[in-house]
Amino acid sequence: MFLNLDEVFKIMEQLADVTLRRLLDNEVFDLDPDLQEPSQITKRDLEARAQNEFFRAFFRLPRQEKLHSVVDCSLWTPFSRCHTVGRMFTSDRYICFASKEDGCCNVILPLREVVSIEKMEDTSLLPNPVIVSIRSKMAFQFIELKDRDSLVGSLLVRLQRVHANHPVHYDTSQDEDMTSPVFHSTSMCGDHKFGDLEMVSSQNSEESEKEKSPRLHPEALISVFQQSGSQSPDLRMSREQIKISLWNDHFVEYGRTVCMFRTEKIRKLVAMGIPESLRGKLWLLFSDAVTDLASHPGYYGNLVEESMGKCCLVTEEIERDLHRSLPEHPAFQNETGIAALRRVLTAYAHRNPKIGYCQSMNILTSVLLLYAKEEEAFWLLVAVCERMLPDYFNHRVIGAQVDQSVFEELIKEHLPELAEHMNDLSALASISLSWFLTLFLSIMPLESAVSVVDCFFYDGIKAIFQLGLAVLEANAEGLCSSKDDGQALMVLSRFLDHIKNEDSPGPSVGSHHAFFSDDQEPYPVTDIADLIRDSYEKFGDQSVEQIEHLRCKHRIRVLQGHEDTTKQNVLRVVTPEVSILPEDLEELYDLFKREHMMSCYWEQPRPVAPRHDPSRPYAEQYRIDVRQFTHLFQLVSPWTCGAHTEILAERTFRLLDDNMDHLIEFKAFVSCLDVMYNGEMNEKIKLLYRLHIPPALTENDRDSQSPLKNPLLSTSRPLVFGKSNGDAIDYQKQLKQMIKDLAKEKDKTEKELPKMSQREFIQFCKTLYSMFHEDPEENELYQAIATVTTLLLQIGEVGQRSSSSGSCSQEGGEELRASALSPDQDSVFADNNAGKIPQDSRTFTEEVEGDWTVSLEHILASLLTEQSLVNFFEKPLDIKSKLENAKINQYSLKTFEMSRQSQPELKLNNV
């Protein structure tokens, strides 16, 4: 199947990436249906996933877009008057084209903008032509399409589905002037199937939606809060007009909607800086947020209405950061700007609770509001958070950390001298983290940083990588001469704070983290246009495919690093509270985590066993339910009771499940094991006692399947064997004194445990009996527990008589308990046909059975009288051997469990 090592390694990387993201990063990761069953994954499935990811990343499309076909073809490009060779990509809602020569020509055609898809007559000059017409009166001619008929048929089906699900809404509320591109759909002809009737009804529904929606800010904030720069108004307007003229000429030749031809020429225009009057509109086009905006009329207004007035942790975080967002700009020194920012951030948190609100979103959103209308800014934020910077805005900023790791590798590749001087590039990665999270907005003057955002919306994350490399190259000498990280930070801060935009019509607005120097010597100024041009010329050769490959490679390391950090933090908290050795604790953590993972992803999901949630506190990230706990209990618990083990495990789980959410975390699991392995005898007995009273023992708890069926407690057997009468009396006095001492020494601050009923006591005895099975001292232990059982039975019966008479004092009760210790009595587990209880005794028991109780102190004192029992509970236990066996058998036990569960289904199907 695999003919070379590179292919094998590539497949392994893809499998590792799918597995790690599925297990550890499901916060935003949705697995393709074809990859849901691990045993059914094929090489073709992995290749299809990789192609899907490349397609979405290259054209920066929504995550839910599924690639249907990739076809070699040629597209007529009127600006070059020839056909450009490339490939057509078709998905659920898009037709895209990319030239084979990188950056030569790309086209994105949302199906909602498509009017018709037609096959034309086949000729020698135009083989297999297809014409795609769009609403802005443009047509795209594709030729040399293989399987043209089936391709066109499938496209028409999807086109009809898109128009049925998202009827086109026409916006005629504003007239576009000549300086703005046309961004709204217009009707081509009256007899078109999406004609006047639908247009009128759409307008009416949109107007009614607007009446219901809350009041939104109708224009970009910069048009209201325009600042006057240091340049003369004439010079400022002259430069703006020149840029606008260049862009208008470009629109005429290459198109002015989202369906425009995207070539190297437009990249150069973007690098020069977008005119302020066009900036917000072009951001919408480049990100394709305009399609989301047109497809969801009234959506944002409804979100605002639903989310405003609600108070939660997210809204508190938003309120805290509102006044930290561009505080130096007058738009956000005013309630108008603050209110708009609040609405957008709150609405997005309501739309996407998985992300909610993350730091740096406020800075980005405030800049979007400066250049776009409020609703447009919302959809731009959606585009950035959900497809242009995937995994950036979540609780662990995985995406940003992955890109930091990629950036380190690019530094080694493009700036080897700097990488050689700075042995540890993690310092540079930490410094540059804010570059990626805020797109340089927080560390560069605003009028310069918006030019970076221009490039980002056109070229995606590639623009940030290459600009970061350009910044480091420009400061390579200073960085190489720096003696520590602080000095390196100083060098970069001074450089970034002195990047200016000579063409900006507004005044200089400093960065959030501007560096101030005491040096009187002026620092040289760098023009942002020059820096961007250098970044494209020197580092613009990185393709989207290369970046995605590097992301895949480094994502594995970053996610594994997060897991290691989680493990260290959990162990740091748990280690001081238990006596288990740190190395054994690590093994237990790995077993616990593995059980969680296997049950989450090898079995059908269950309501009480949710998928891994990395947003939870470290100690609560891995939690297991009762079935998973039972598996682990059988593997690592020293209290193995044969068939009774599963019952004991279920009771232990109920005891540890304090909040009754049917899940327990690692700390509770280890604390319980620590008592079993390292606890004093009284701690172990107390744990066993608690396992046989509520809530661990329930009314519906099934009886043990121990060899003793339907046991009866009998008091007709001798209590003490081989002892003289005098010895027995001394023994009774000693026991009585022990009970008194235990009562005095009991910690008053500790909540007293309830007494144990007769039913609970029977279950307690069954557990002890099962624990002794196959022990080397089995016979002695059985004899000892028989003695102790009889003793406790007599104590309970004496207390029962005392309770029924109601006239015995505490001292009298103790005398009764002592008198009950007769040398000719004992208790045993007996079958139904053995150990008959005298009729008078049975009658008395039935009358007051509900009052029969025994306390923890009674049980502990009674057990202490038998040396064999003391030896059993105090003997050292080896957890290492248990852990070694558990590591070997964990997978086999899980496999056996799953196969056993599938047997009934198999039989049912056969029937």
TrEMBL record:
MF-aspect GO terms: GTPase activator activity
Coiled-coil region: 728-759
Gene3D superfamilies, per database record: EF-hand, Pleckstrin-homology domain (PH domain)/Phosphotyrosine-binding domain (PTB), putative rabgap domain of human tbc1 domain family member 14 like domains, Ypt/Rab-GAP domain of gyp1p, domain 1, Ypt/Rab-GAP domain of gyp1p, domain 3
CDD domains noted in UniProt: PH-GRAM2_TBC1D8
Keyword Repeat attributed: yes
Matches recorded under InterPro entries: EF-hand-dom_pair, GRAM, PH-like_dom_sf, Rab-GAP-TBC_dom, Rab-GAP_TBC_sf, TBC1D8_PH-GRAM2
Compositionally biased region (Low complexity): 800-811
Rab-GAP TBC domain mapped to chain residues: 273-460
PANTHER family, alphabetized: PROTEIN VASCULAR ASSOCIATED DEATH 1, CHLOROPLASTIC, TBC1 DOMAIN FAMILY MEMBER 8 ISOFORM X1
Functional summary from the UniProt entry: May act as a GTPase-activating protein for Rab family protein(s).
Protein name: TBC1 domain family member 8
Organism of this sequence: Lynx pardinus (Iberian lynx)
Lineage: Eukaryota, Metazoa, Chordata, Craniata, Vertebrata
